[in-house]
Amino acid sequence: MYHSGELAVQRRLGQEAIATRVGRMIRTEVPTAAATFLAEQPMIVIAAADDEGRVWAGLIAGPPGFVHADDPGKILIDALPAVGDPLHDVLRGGQQIGMIAIEPQTRRRMRVNGSAEPAGPGLRIVPDQVYSNCPKYISRRDIAEIRSATDAPEVRRGHALTDRQRQLIVEADAFFIGSADPLGNADASHRGGNPGFLQVHSPRRLRWPDYRGNSMFMTLGNIEANPRCGLLVIDWSSGSTVQLTGTAEINWEEADSGAGAQCAIDFTIDEVVELTQASPLRWTAPELSPANPAFGCG
Questions:
Q1: Is the pTM of this model over 0.90?
Q2: Treating both helix axes as pointing N-terminal to C-terminal, what angle do 218-225 and 4-12 enclose, rounded to 10 degrees?
Q3: Tell me: the pLDDT tens digits for 86-120?
Q4: Alpha helices, DSSP H, located in 53-120
Q5: Closest CA relative to residue 232, chosen from 76, 81, 128
Q6: SS3 292
Q7: Are 216 and 263 in contact (CB under 8 A)?
Q8: Rounded Cα–Cα distance for residues 202 and 242 (Å)
Q9: Alpha helix positions (H), the chain
Q10: Beta bridge partners of 264
Q11: CB of 58 closer than 8 Å to CB of 243
């Protein structure tokens, strides 16, 4: 079930037995409870590789019901990422994708990995892996406003962070990460912590501590086997997004058991895409997760 990168990380951290046990919860079809959860969500995050093999994570928003699993063997998404999102055109062709649906109000989330193909205004996903995660590290926030549809977002591209983008990142209590194994099988995951846990070391270098999770190590395992990954940072108050694609490296020397970090991830930026008001959703200020370690990992 696990590929070589995941197995290597599990062995290094002595969590093979836990990973085997937790892995039994993964399904290949969408259970009824999961279908109900998906149908209630106004946003999801998708991860996939572009034609150059670069991995991106992007946001898709819509009215509840725009994501629906009427059949346990497929999920329909009646939208694509906003125009200007690097995944907007990529997803118009067949693609391996990772998807995460997160409900900040309840700190619930579920993940889906599988194959996607165009269908109507959006996508049809045939899942290979369907599973839920615990609520750890998710900040609670509520929807404060839903804006009416507007023009296509303004797109800003670059190869390094601007001052404004840097400020958004250092104040973030959450981001999403897309990764893929060497065969292109993609995964989308969430990372959360107290503001400051996502560090900007230079306009093209980031670092964050990797806190203990479900012990399957799908993200770390992918990075171990394939360093290309993508980050999505959402400005919850404005609906704007910053997407980064680049390469990641596991820094085992930065483990800090006192701060709850198994290691750190060093990320080098290749390209930055900022979309203004990419989402119609406006969220309240966060209630930080009580599971967040006090930030102190270098």
A1: yes
A2: 110
A3: 999 999 888 999 999 999 999 999 999 999 999 99
A4: 86-90
A5: 81
A6: coil
A7: no
A8: 16
A9: 4-12, 16-23, 32-39, 86-90, 163-170, 218-225
A10: 209, 251
A11: yes
